[in-house]
What we know:
Layout: E1 3-7, H1 11-20, E2 28-32, E3 37-41, H2 43-47, H3 56-62, E4 67-70, H4 73-87, E5 94-95, H5 103-106, E6 118-122, H6 133-146, E7 152-156, H7 159-168, H8 192-206, H9 217-220, H10 226-230, H11 232-235, H12 247-250, H13 260-263, H14 275-284, H15 289-293, H16 297-304, H17 306-316, E8 332-342, H18 349-366, E9 368-379, E10 387-397, H19 400-411, E11 420-432, H20 448-461, E12 467-471, E13 481-485, H21 486-495, H22 528-536, E14 548-555, E15 561-570, E16 580-587, E17 592-598, E18 601-607
Helix pairs in contact: 1-4, 16-17, 18-19, 19-20
Amino acid sequence: xxxxxxxxxxxxxxxxxxxxxxxxxxxxxxxxxxxxxxxxxxxxxxxxxxxxxxxxxxxxxxxxxxxxxxxxxxxxxxxxxxxxxxxxxxxxxxxxxxxxxxxxxxxxxxxxxxxxxxxxxxxxxxxxxxxxxxxxxxxxxxxxxxxxxxxxxxxxxxxxxxxxxxxxxxxxxxxxxxxxxxxxxxxxxxxxxxxxxxxxxxxxxxxxxxxxxxxxxxxxxxxxxxxxxxxxxxxxxxxxxxxxxxxxxxxxxxxxxxxxxxxxxxxxxxxxxxxxxxxxxxxxxxxxxxxxxxxxxxxxxxxxxxxxxxxxxxxxxxxxxxxxxxxxxxxxxxxxxxxxxxxxxxxxxxxxxxxxxxxxxxxxxxxxxxxxxxxxxxxxxxxxxxxxxxxxxxxxxxxxxxxxxxxxxxxxxxxxxxxxxxxxxxxxxxxxxxxxxxxxxxxxxxxxxxxxxxxxxxxxxxxxxxxxxxxxxxxxxxxxxxxxxxxxxxxxxxxxxxxxxxxxxxxxxxxxxxxxxxxxxxxxxxxxxxxxxxxxxxxxxxxxxxxxxxxxxxxxxxxxxxxxxxxxxxxxxxxxxxxxxxxxxxxxxxxxxxxxxxxxxxxxxxxxx
Length: 609
């Protein structure tokens, strides 16, 4: 596998900054409630002297405009899920970053050693999809910048080496950072195949065992110039130049992978080992990784245990590394703690818009749409129960702007009893995303404009006020249709995988007819003169139907109408109702109507438009 390691130095803070709409240069810090000490500070706050371990009083004295955020385990979970979710669009194998404050709790049995704040992507299988690794990395970096994230990259077949490279030897540098601490390319004119072959040879020489005669660890450690004699081609010079690559230069240069030779010159303290082991290394005079690599493994195992041997084996690529990949959840959940209290619903528009934008990206990745989502508002007064409301999308929405628009319309009817401190959204009712056609009267689908209009009407008036018509199998016209809410129609259609297209009747229809008793098409006549012309020229076959049907037939006097054409008998042998003889009639006061005669008299069934 080919791994792309991405190091996010301030991902917890920048996750909050993006969803809260804070400027990128905001002074923000994360603190622990119990000790009231700073855990991590943003770059802007660090320039003013705010650093890890300071008390809250000292931090606020150094930076009066500092915004403090209490750390909760749920914060790292939500931020990690958010990072993995949009990174999933670049690779199907995503290894979530480990929060430095939850490292001990998040450690899984038999899991390979790794660095915190670093996300892993398997990109070898995705190179052709993006047209090359350069484009993949460039697009990923642009997306991260759009979210306000700082990140550094490294590429390698060894996941642990890639993580170390992303943090301490990144592929390209930020514009405002020095270049001598970053991983550069070697000779620019050297072919990529020769680069990889040379680096592989240097790596092999570095990994050769050089066990001394004395088996004690202290005497086995080479001193001074003896280190250079072990692999002179590797350590005699900085084989990879001193010029780092900017993002613009990245697309013009061939990418090479991070190797053990490039990590060897780093201090031992960068390795993901327990603190007491690192302290023991320092007491022994082991200051660099290359010095540790030259020691005999047997004595290292006796003194420091299996942890050090496992780490070295992973560094050398001699031990398969076990990773737990990110799994996209079937249901969507997202919770956000606000940095400020919101007393009006308009104040929730921006963070809610960012959350719904994240939901939209999730739906697009899974090719799904949402029919309803649950919004929960938590108040400052904990004695008040959280406000839960269901936001309905009758036509299965997935676009961020439409999600927010309908949500705001439905929230206008609510009143906040107290200031809101956090909000959460949950979407369980998901359906497959279908492509709509512009001809909404056809059976293939409905236009986006018509669906948005109907959705907006239902959001403003309520689901019980906006209804559509649906076919019902019955020979009597007044019982051949029924009204149902648009949401019920949508849920019913989605639930019946094998339902025919004839069952998908929406509120765009004015009348619905059973196919069993009517063979001709429903025909609407807009003008009375047109109908008379068709009648006199014999263009009607007797099966013409009105545009508007009454809910129940109404009695009508024989003297008030003139029968123009008929009768047409409607009768079902399986029904106990008497037969009906239908006529096309004209009222003396104006208007064309559809009437029928039974033993009880003459009844009005519907009107022609």
